[in-house]
Design goal:
- This protein has 423 residues and is an alpha/beta fold.
- The chain has three domains: 148 residues, no CATH class; 206 residues, 3-Layer(aba) Sandwich (Rossmann fold); 34 residues, no CATH class.
- Helix content is 45%, strand content 26%.
- The chain has 14 helices and 14 strands.
- The chain has a six-stranded mixed beta sheet, sandwiched between helices.
- A hairpin with a 7-residue loop joins strand 9 and strand 10.
- The protein starts with a helix and ends with a strand.
Length: 423
């Protein structure tokens, strides 16, 4: 009977309940805190992994489009190596041991699948589909392990596409070689970063002779300054990139014809339209490294319009001979100044003349890419008006890098080659 009484008292006794509940709740609360911390980390890891996958597929797609001859196996290896290099940044900077890092990198590679597919429709046209699927086990903290979870698997997918459409075209370059093209840009010449220039200072030095052992002579003091690339050097580098892109799109010289005229206040000798880029590349390379003169693009634009307008049978006959049933026509107009003629002042008559030719060309169906390279306001306004559209056809580069990018992009747009992320 006494035993039953003790048991009844024990059942009614609430002392110590808080301690028991706390003991039960602490692991749950700590686990919840661990999940919150680990979830943030998992999201960051997935974002990093997705960026690595996107960069890898874009790199492979670009490489296949640019080289043309890259095999699917080579593209898949390039994609995988690029992905591992990008995704491994977090691992390489962690406090893992070298053995743990090696194991983690091997896991990255083992859990990634790369696939490249090329579809060739002709000798100059092809499309490329690049895909990457990857996963990674993110280790969780000890707090989350209290709930029985020691890792969380994240997965990403990326797809990019590129193509070479083999677009038949005729292009004419109207290029500025006025005196201001000899001016410096803000880009330092990496091959020769500095140069010596004379100062106004003079210094004396000993120059003894037989009859005057104490003779002193005087010479100019020189100082070392940054060696910036000129605008003309930048133009030549940018044009070379354009020609390289066009050559990739037309390796057999049967799709692209190109000509050019440079100008100061005078219109220079024209480089006639021809297949491929060889002749016009030599023409640009021969432009004076230290140009001189004013600015008047009207004559160069007249040459461009005459070469490409519909009434000119030469281009149609040339393309027909290569089996190009249709082709696009482009003018690339570039200046670093405003229309001044042989003076230092803007000339409205010349400006209006260039605008009129631009309008005639656009009305004729010719598309105009306009590049205002470090140009003043009047020059920018003219080229923006001449372009076939501010968003896609007008460029305003302010340094050599941007100029190179502009010329390269124009070539890819005209030749219809490109790379895009599709996922």
């Amino acid at each position: 009977m006494k035993t039953c009484t003790h048991f009844a008292r024990l059942m009614k006794d609430r002392a110590g309940n808080f301690g028991i509940m706390t003991a039960v709740a602490i692991p749950v609360l700590m686990g919840a805190a661990g999940i919150a911390i680990d979830l943030t980390r998992v999201i960051e890891e997935k974002t990093h992994l997705q960026a690595a996958a996107d960069a890898a597929t874009l790199a492979a797609a670009s490489a296949m489009s640019e080289e043309g001859s890259m095999s699917e196996t080579e593209a898949e290896k390039l994609m995988m190596d690029f992905y591992i290099a990008q995704a491994a940044q977090t691992i390489n900077t962690s406090d893992m041991t070298e053995e743990e890092k090696a194991a983690a990198l091997e896991e990255l590679r083992r859990n990634a699948e790369a696939m490249a597919t090329s579809t060739v429709t002709s000798s100059t046209a092809a499309s490329y589909d690049i895909r990457l699927k990857a996963s990674y086990d993110v280790p969780l903290s000890g707090l989350t392990a209290l709930l029985g979870f020691d890792k969380m698997t994240i997965g990403v997918e990326s797809q990019s596409a590129s193509g070479r459409e083999g677009n038949a075209l005729s292009m004419y370059l109207a290029l500025d070689e006025s005196g201001s093209m000899a001016w410096d840009t803000t880009t330092i010449n990496s091959a020769q970063p500095t140069k010596l220039v004379a100062t106004d200072q003079k210094e004396k030095y000993s120059c003894p002779t037989k009859h005057n052992p104490n003779k002193m002579c005087e010479r100019t003091v020189y100082k070392e300054v940054p060696n910036y690339l000129t605008k003309m050097a930048s133009l030549k580098a940018a044009a070379a990139v354009m020609f390289e892109e066009l050559d990739k799109a037309d390796p057999n010289k049967e799709l692209i014809r190109i000509g050019a005229t440079s100008y100061t206040h005078e219109t220079k000798t024209e480089e006639k339209m021809a297949w491929g880029t060889d002749e016009v590349a030599d023409y640009v390379d021969d432009l004076p490294n230290v140009p001189a003169g004013g600015t008047d693009a009207s004559g160069a634009m007249d040459n461009a319009f005459k070469a490409l307008k519909n009434a000119t049978a030469t281009e149609k006959t040339a393309h027909d001979g290569k089996g190009n049933t249709s082709f696009e026509r482009f003018i690339v107009l570039m200046t670093d100044g405003e229309m001044t003629g042989y003076s230092a002042n803007w000339n409205k008559t010349l400006d209006d003349k260039v605008r009129a030719t631009c309008k005639l060309a656009k009305d004729d169906g010719i598309k105009i890419y306009a590049i205002a390279f470090m140009a003043p306001t009047k020059g920018k306004q003219l080229l923006e008006a001449c372009s076939s559209g501010e968003d896609d056809y007008y460029y305003e580069p302010n340094n050599m890098t941007q100029l190179v990018q502009s010329f390269g992009e124009i070539a890819r747009k005209a030749a219809k080659t490109g790379t895009r992320l599709t996922n």
